[in-house]
């Protein structure tokens, strides 16, 4: 071995070993990186929105069904594309406000969204053997969602709303089960369930439609409730003891000048223009001056408390689809409180919450948590979860509830709600015609809230309804004329044997 | 000459009366490799169609026939060869065919597996030719210089052909296309081995001292540096980044092995850093690759969807520990290079980390067997040749797998034996054939002396 000037040179065996070790080190680096990507970072990559694999898996099998009255209102169709199946709807527009949509491109909303894990089969509760399923990557077939919707009530609501912009929410007062949830104009969620260009065109058209057909007006939109809110005010005044006898004269003055202003609170009908009207008459005729006065007498705190008992100011009202927050301001001066007490000023409510108002009164003061889902099952029909009625609030005592029921019954029997009367049934209701727009120039919102039970029955009424017509071409836009007939047909659908 | 201590220590103690040539071990392993490939083929069919492919038997027979033929040729003309080399080649090639067939099923408009099988057959044929005809590897030394010249011409030719996906690295005549850079690397390694074997002492021991580095005499280093620079220059011109990186790495490794000068590695790394900086600066293509490597998900945040690297990472991640099973992944989302540069992602997705590590182990075994052969050989040329060939496989694996795993910037090269590409498969079979030849030489003395 030659000795170089810089000393002993390592032999070629040594250098070759070092080079070989270097190559193996490179492979080791690769193994480390593979472990990092496939094990430690895998979840992040799998959950990345740009990763289509979860969508492919999701649409690789038929989606579970959503049912109304035990009958599926959804289905699945093979597409032959990258996403094997797409969602279909048997009567899409009728139930769009209930189901929402499940689109390969645009995601899932409403029940399709909140129950997505179950419907798409990824819910852990569908697993038979969790560990084995994880190893074998077996995907469970999608489970079923049984809704509380009553097909007849839903049909009645949709045909009543037909051609108008509006919404209906109907509740079973004793349980909180939602019997109807309708919004018009509606859309067909099946028309853009796939990923073809036709689907995309439909979506774009729906998005740019000025009538907002995809807006769920029953749940996601609030309107000033107008006079229907007087039910809340009456309940608050009775609970606070401001009024004890609904037929006794009140101290309400006429004209009622809004406190701190010189503006009188005007009435729609001259019959109201008398001082000291009793509450029953005031409700029957829908007198603003009386109820505004009573709201102020009750006081802000008690008015807020009563409104919140019915679901106002709750930004997390999940049925399980989240409803928009209904508003009743918590800081107001007296004049604002007077206006709010007749459902004006900043007061705004979803049809759902106004249905809760009617239902709470009907259920003797107990407001039940509204729910849209009866039960969740696996594809084989075995129950995953059974929903039980939950109490939301005890809004008022049964005695007060009885008084408010009497008020509402009189509205239908003798007052503005006459068009909701059903032969052979006891019906209680309240009309509302809410001004809005600049200088109140827009077509008013026509409201009606009500409940009904067979005449003579002492049971809790089986149905409570809220109807709002947001925009109608009718000339006489009042709750009594436009909304009450729709409420009537929905109640009749439920009452029918 | 006395036996080197390192090799002697490898012999079992006490020495068996008659050492094995390893041919029966090889036969068993080759049949096992064929069985694994056929099993994979059947699994793809079962997972995609619910039944094995109709031609599974024919496919198995063809693969088995080819492998057996290769084995018999080795048995006949290289009976002392390392018994692991051929089985690893068969297994890797078999896995490659299965995965390409699987990807064909996801791209009904283009099927690559039949062509790949044809090229594999040609590759095994050339393997046989080399094993049978090349009696003594030292014969290659005589043609080292002319080989380098041929390699250079091969390498320059694609410049006159149209670019494919931004790189001019193919020679295309009608439906037929080859990638000369793949073949040229063997010729270049032969040239390096021949040149360094002759000049290693001069390179290592003479030259001027500058600070602590001893610079080699330019007279000796000049020619080899020139050849190498021309090769790299051509490849950079053709924007074949993977190959330039590979050629560069092979040169540095061989120079170090021959001269034991750490200085070479230092200079090599400095040159590489300078080169990458300059190229990255001048070429928007390379700059983009580096950006994608540093921020693989940036394009998603920018709302442009997942780029290839992101898609590749998604595929690996989806595979997890155990994989989805052959045929049940979605690596086709990666796009146009799914069967070639990115084929490893399919393996990662469908066979999981487990399968990937097993694959890396196979490559590591092949590379280490190459190095063992080099170390065991006594002639400097053979030694450097074996080491150079093993380095090709090791570095190419690193460049490709590192790129698709986002360990290093993506440069684009074929995964040895597995990726779609005829030139690559044929080249790899020739490399294995040369290693078989060299290992036969290395072990012959040992076993016959025993």
SSE pattern of chain B, N- to C-terminal: HHHHHHEEHEEHHHHHHHHH
Mean pLDDT of chain B: 85
N-C termini distance of chain A: 110 Å
Structural class of chain B: mainly alpha
Cα-atom radius of gyration of chain A: 30 Å
Q: How many distinct helices of chain B? A: 16
Q: Helical proportion of chain B?
A: 55-70%
Strands in their spatial order, largest beta sheet of chain B: 1-2
Share of helix of chain A, binned: 25-40%
CATH-defined superfamily of the domain at 226-373 and 388-495 in chain A: DD-peptidase/beta-lactamase superfamily
Low-confidence stretches of chain B: 1-8
Number of DSSP E strands of chain B: 4
Radius of gyration of chain B: 22 Å
User: Which secondary-structure class do the elements of chain A indicate?
Assistant: alpha+beta
The 3D shape of chain A can be described as elongated
The proportion of strand residues of chain B reads under 5%
Give the amount of beta strand of chain A, in percent: 15-25%
H/I helix tally of chain A? 17
